[in-house]
Amino acid sequence: MIDSSTSLLASQKHDIVRFAMGSPANEDIPVDVFREIAVTHLNPSSFTYGATEGEPQLLEALVDYLSTTSEPTSYDRLVITAGGMQGLDLACKIFVDPGDLVIVESPTYTNGSATAASYGAELLEAPMDADGLIVEALPALVSAAGRSPKAIYVIPNFQNPSGTTLSAQRRELLIKLAHDWNAIIIDDDPYGPLRFTGQDVPGFQHISPRDPLVFSVRTFSKILAPGLRVGWVDTDPKIRQLVINAKQAMDTCTNVPAQHMTAEFIRRGDLSAHLRRIRSLYFDRKCAMRESLAHSLGERITMTDPEGGFFLWLRLQGEDAMTSSTALFETALREGVAFIPGTAFSPSYKFDNALRLCFAASTPDRIQVGVERLTRSLDLARSVDY
Ligand code: PMP
Q1: pTM here?
Q2: Domain 2-22+273-385: what homologous superfamily?
Q3: In terms of Cα–Cα distance, which of 302, 304, 330 is closest to 316?
């Protein structure tokens, strides 16, 4: 559902405000810089097979760049992947066997939970609140399940879809529980560098350095361009060798021209500048979306207030809660606004009264138009329901 919306939306002929896809707007992707780098920096070595672990210039640029962040790392822990999805696939391929219990957030990014399920995992959906996954609730859930989990899949910052961030205290407790259970933490953090307000919360790698139970999945998709299909995993060097072996059997190496372009982009210092620019854009867009929603829908909804990332999570209240967001989607599309219905974020299709809205890809003016259309759709849906 999350990705099938791409082709569904592409086939629509009328004007649609796009709150559905978690993708940067085309005009916020630095295409001119990529074009110039393609001319000046791609050479014959860009068009042959590369090393499975990644191109040396990208690994070096990444280690340099990450040394300026709260998650410094080293060459011997990194493998370049085809986006975050391949990082998730590699984690599950290595750690998840049929019948294993895997804890997932509820709601979660279901392409991630589906990856675990594709290796035979039994998914245990665990509840969230404003501080992210309710880690304190996990021991009781695990004891009711009757066996320890093999992995815990978490999106710690500005979670997809809820926009919430896991508190520092809960991160610490999660690491302790992972050790009690000998479970891997699949730390999927595409949005962490996109914080626009508040304080950074220390990452798992920071709280528990060189912890073999922390497997970090990262991507350039949200901070640069999803079409590059370039990401990385940061993991214990022994596990890294398993990752390299598994990746070799999957796709030999990540697309080499895309790696060379990304490396040069970072080397020029353009990534930091680009991040500064989009953080401020996204902050304005989030504020515009929250203000429009509060103005048009007021008490009819609750919504999260993310301090970064792409998404806010809206829950219908009162009589509107009787409206199925899946049914609302059809009406909204006709009215000219797209979102993702809440059920797309739960393996057991919970959250039919919730909507994920991406604020990152529309200007404040367009956001206002989109929220007006969404309000009209809800009014129409309500008049049908009652
Ligand atoms: N994890 C999460 C939480 C995501 O939101 C996404 C992209 N929507 C991914 C992983 C996949 O990233 P990529 O496009 O780089 O494969």
Answers
A1: 0.96
A2: Aspartate Aminotransferase, domain 1 (3.90.1150.10)
A3: 302
